[in-house]
Design brief:
The longest helix is centred in the N-terminal third of the chain and has 59 residues, at 48-106. Helix 7 crosses helix 8. Strands 1-7-6-5-2-3-4-8 form an 8-stranded mixed beta sheet, with helices on both faces. The protein has helices at residues 3-9, 12-17, 20-41, 48-106, 120-131, 144-152, 173-182, 189-209, 263-277, 292-303, 309-329; strands at residues 110-112, 135-139, 157-164, 214-222, 229-232, 236-240, 255-259, 282-286. The chain starts with a helix and ends in a 5-residue tail after the last helix. It has 11 helices and 8 strands. With 334 residues, the protein is of the alpha+beta class.
Length: 334
């Protein structure tokens, strides 16, 4: 059936034409017309009255039947079709809501592919999540980026960070292997290790400098940190997949964002708190009123190396240079 015919049938008057009842009405009208035509040609007394009565009665029956069919079709539309359509619409809405719920629970809201430079859209969205949170969790290698973002934020929050233990060689082996796959030939493993140690030192200084933006900074140092980086806020969790070998040639791997209430959010939060409360890691704390001498003592406990005032100033300069470069490339300002 053509689209035009379907549109015609959407009206009850035209629907009648396409039903069996319409065929019966047509037959009655034809019979009535023929009977009246014949009776008009007959002479009186030869059955004209009977034929005329037959035509008139048939015509009346056709008219009454037409009206009854119209009323019945309209009533049927309201009594049968409309409830079915409404029930179908309600079922589709419930199904859509269920699918949306499943999407929120198991699928990321955003997927940022691997890049060689910071993605401005990625960083703007993460900064929005950071500015809206009261509690921030970080699990990664050196926490340099976390410290830089904290210095760019304007609200006070609690920070918990899990970083690699610089005193344990195995703690940085995973990141070193990742960088070896990305680096050009000629860069040896020892050079990368030294660079990673330096990044941890710079990250620790950055966390100290960001202490005024936090109610407190809790640091957990572990010897077996997961390769993937985690950044968790009140309403979202971000997973940067350093374990994804497909992005091994890029500086910034593929990242997934999940909302609060999702399966990944709840799972990662539980695992993060387990690590923070376990006895396998070493736990430290930086308060907003911690002095430089307090930090130098804490730095020695974490790294096993004593930091002089001159070395502190050098690391501070390196961190600020990193922060300015990162902020400019990521278009974060500051």
């Amino acid at each position: 059936m053509s689209a035009d015919a379907k549109r015609l049938r959407s009206n009850p008057l035209q629907e009648i034409f396409w039903t069996r009842t319409s065929l019966l009405l047509l037959i009655l009208i034809v019979v009535a017309g023929v009977s009246l035509l014949i009776s008009s040609a007959m002479s009186p007394g030869t059955g004209k009255t009977l034929v005329s009565a037959l035509g008139t009665g048939t015509l009346i029956s056709a008219v009454v039947g037409f009206g009854q069919t119209l009323i019945t079709a309209t009533a049927s539309q309201k009594a049968l079709v409309a409830p079915v359509i409404e029930e179908s619409r309600r079922a589709l809405q419930e199904l859509s809501a269920e699918y949306r719920s499943l999407n929120r629970e198991f699928f990321p809201t955003h997927v940022f592919e691997a890049t060689t430079d910071p993605d401005p859209a990625f960083n703007r969205l993460m900064m929005a999540d950071l500015n809206a949170t009261r509690q921030c969790f970080f699990r990664g290698f050196s926490a340099r980026h976390a410290a830089a973002r904290l210095l760019l934020s304007h609200t006070e929050r609690e920070l918990r960070a899990v970083i690699a233990d610089p005193r344990d060689a195995s703690a940085i082996s995973g990141r070193a292997r990742y960088l070896l796959r990305r680096e050009e030939s000629g860069v040896d493993y020892e050079t990368i290790q030294n660079r990673l140690h330096n990044e941890i030192w710079i990250g620790l200084v950055g966390l100290y400098l960001a202490r005024s933006h936090c109610a407190q900074v809790d640091i957990t140092v572990v010897s077996d940190p997961p390769l993937d980086r985690l950044e968790m806020f009140d309403d979202s969790v971000w997973l940067t997949l350093y374990s994804d070998i497909g992005g091994a040639t890029t500086l910034y791997p593929r990242t997934l964002r999940f909302t609060e209430g999702s399966f990944m959010y709840n799972m990662e939060r539980a695992e993060f708190l387990r690590v923070c409360n376990s006895r396998s890691g070493r736990h430290f704390q930086i308060m907003p009123d911690s002095t430089r001498q307090d930090f130098l003592a804490l730095f020695e406990k974490i790294t096993g190396s004593r930091l002089s005032e001159e070395q502190f100033g050098e690391l501070e300069g390196k961190f600020h240079a990193f922060r300015r470069e990162f902020s400019a490339v990521a278009e974060l300002g500051g």
